[in-house]
Amino acid sequence: MSERKDFEVIAQLVPQGARVLDLGCGTGELLAHLRDTRGCSGYGVELDDANLLACAKRGVNVIQLNLEEGLKLFEDRSFDVVLQLETLQHLRNAENMLRETARVGRIGIVSFPNFAHWPNRLSVLRGRMPVTRALPYEWYDTPNIRVGTYKDFEVLARKNGLQVIDSFGLQNGEVIRQWPNLMANVAVFKFERG
């Protein structure tokens, strides 16, 4: 997560002392923060070599793994929390990875750009794909394989037998609970197996 306020909101969802797996952990900034401020332990999963090096420099345990191959490396319920922050939209096997997140962790926390945010809708009405803080790429050079909405994830969670414990949107670091599908540029869900 790039915005510091968003980062802090997500960190507050993770219980003190939790064993955490961060899928697509980037430079390990969040895991280091959780370790240093909340007494958490765990691992990051990352594919990019430069990010692996950044994790190592932060003292974050990191495993190089392509998430498209799943999480066979980990046993059921081996983590208290599995984070999948702004990663799901980059995966071809998003539904399978969501199930794997629920299998490996007692709690899953997912965030992704909310395509239904009102400026995105307005951009599409004008005939253009949106370019925003949460979706900063042009349509032709985006690493996102798919876009989704807050409401889409609610349907996907139900379909896969997941119980949503908490959900909200984020807009410039502020938690949005009223009309998050329309008013927030990032969707956040905390869930467990139903």
Automatic annotation (TrEMBL):
It comes from the Bacteria. SUPFAM superfamilies: S-adenosyl-L-methionine-dependent methyltransferases. The gene is metW. It holds the Pfam family MetW. This is Methionine biosynthesis protein MetW. The lineage of its organism: Bacteria, Pseudomonadati, Pseudomonadota, Betaproteobacteria, Burkholderiales.
